[in-house]
Structure formats: structure tokens, C-alpha cells
Amino acid sequence: MKTLAPLALVAALCFAQPAFAQLKPYTDYDTSASISQVSTVKVDANMIDYYLEGIRSTWVASNEAAKKLGQIESYSVYVSDLPLSGEFNVVLVTRVKNASDLEPSKARYDAFMKAWGEANEKKTRETVKSYPDIRKITGEYRLREITFK
Fold this sequence. Notes:
Elements: H1 4-16, E1 29-31, E2 35-43, H2 48-68, E3 74-79, E4 90-96, H3 106-127, H4 131-134, E5 135-143, E6 146-148
Antiparallel strand pairs: 1-6, 2-4, 2-5, 3-4
Helix pairs in contact: 2-3
């Protein structure tokens, strides 16, 4: 038994070695200036197509307008192949060039509202009224991509 104790200690230290490693930003990896805003959504499994129909005329359409104005770089919608598993089954992602694009801006707001128009705003308000009945937002995140050197 006394012989096994030192071996166990050596084995534990070998496995603990990665805990001592410390990566250094800008030396070992870079952080992107662009930011992805990610929303995770749990949609009732039998309502996913209905939800997608709704966001096509609201979330997707407004992001398309923002993209044409250069206010966002891109947007994406992801749907799980397994809609009944996990905390979410739909992921909505928008990507901006840098953090300053997330700051409030009357000029950007006015440009967007001019492009989006009152008719779309009214239609969106009407469409989203049904969302609480079919989905729950389970998380919102701001993520930056890490590139290892």
C-alpha cells in the first residue's frame, strides 16, 4: 500500500499538468474584433415551421435591411435536427464588424427605420404577439472568435 501512494501522487501530478498552462492573449491567440450575438430559443417542436415563417418576415427581414445598410455583417438561423432535446432547438446569430456597431446611434436608427418603414414595423409588432405562445428565449450571448497561433 505504501508503494502505491507515491505512484498515485506522480500520476495525479502528470494529469494535473495542463492546469499549470497559461495561454497569453496576442501571443498564443488572437481575439476577433467582430462580435456574434447569439440567441438560443426553445420552440415547441410542432411549431418550428410556424416560428420560422414568422421570423422570416420579422427577424430575417429586419436583418436583411440592416445588412444592406452595412449595420451588420451577416445573420444566420440554425435549427436542431433533434427538436425535442436540450434547452434550445433554434439558434439566431447576427455578426457585427466591431463593438462600436452595437452602440446606440440615432443616425443608424434613422437610416434603418427609413429603410424598414412603418408598414414593416406594424406588421412585425403584430406577428411577434404570438411568439410567447410557441417559444421561450433560453439564452443570449455576445461571442468573439478566438484564433490560435
